[in-house]
Amino acid sequence: MGSARIGRLLEHFDSLEDAWGASEREIRATGLPSDVIASILSERAQIDPEREMEMLDRHDVRALTLDDDDYPRLLRHIPLPPPVLYVRGTLLPTDELAIGVVGTRRSTRYGTDMTTRISRGLAEAGVTVVSGLALGIDTVAHRVALDSGGRTLAVFGCGLDTVYPHRNRDLAERIVEQGALVSEYALGTKPDARNFPVRNRIISGLSRGVVVIEAPTRSGALITTSFAADQSRDVFAVPGSALSSASAGCHELIRNGATLVTGAEHILDQLDVARVEVQTQARLLLPETQSERLLYEIVGAEPRHVNELSIESGLPIHETSGTLLALELKGLVRQSGSQYYVRS
Question: 58 lies in a domain?
Fold first, then answer.
């Protein structure tokens, strides 16, 4: 069940919970292929949702759906976003200022040096580094971001209960402390070669742009840049020696219009980091919860008492008072008298 088919279910049913409990006749009405419907009916009989939730708790993993407030905003708006995003670690609003750093698994000394230089510059500027935990360029990018005191996100091509490659287990644990491991694959999903090209759309989807540091002409990193272009993300490429096959893919990207970069400063200039940070901070100040949005709409230019606001919103008085305090701390409302509120 990929993004498109789950999207079909969501279009037909009010919720995935309703889809889960639907009869065979109701599922057939969605128009899904017969073999897919047969698989749904067969697999559903073997799955215990409560056990799945217990497994998530045991591995300290959250499952975010597109409706969750914590689901990454940039990722939500790509074509075919993951209907469920599994997360181990912490996603922050500031992760919207992120750059994907990708490249070959067989990096040269030059590639390692350039990855170190660029990842350190991004991390020190407060940019989250996103990559795929693979050997080579990915590993260096994650490690340098952590060593520089920055944040990094690693996108898996398997369930989060399996670290692939195994030798990056310690690195994965460090990432949990200073970022997050993310995947669209449920726990128990083993690494499969077919999963990794698809997961690359998440690397670019979480990022403002993608930089390729070393990549031969048939590299998986180039798949990431194709997704980036489809998602209207910036594509950057680091040039190498004209004689090096490890940089042939980067040179091809540059010929096709990718921005040539040799340092983080070039990426930061194109991102206009100061503008993005202002936008991110502004979003943090906006009403976040349903209660905040509801009360913010009700409070106007004329002073209104907390009891009146509680009655009109239908919220308990204690929730109304607490929510008004949160809005006041954000500078969105202010008191114009004892327990009377107006918009700031």
Answer: no
Domain containing residue 337: CATH number: 1.10.10.10
- At residue 79's C-alpha, the angle toward residues 75 and 84, to 5°, is 55
* Residue closest to 180 by CA, chosen among 207, 214, 155, 210: 155
Which of 238, 264, 28 has the alpha carbon at shortest distance from 137? Answer: 238
Q: What is the pTM of this model?
A: 0.77
Tally of CB atoms within 10 A around 186: 18
Q: Name residue, tokens 């999903």.
A: 189
Residue 110 has a pLDDT of: 97
* C-beta atoms surrounding 155 within 10 Å: 26
Residue ranges in the chain modelled with pLDDT below 50: none
- 127 within domain boundaries: yes
Q: Which residues pair with 100 in a beta bridge?
A: 130, 210
Q: 177 is in which domain, residue-wise?
A: 88-281
- Give exposure, 301-326, as e/b (b: 16+ Cβ within 10 Å): eeebebeebbeebebeeeebeebbeb
* CA 25 distance to own-chain centroid: 36
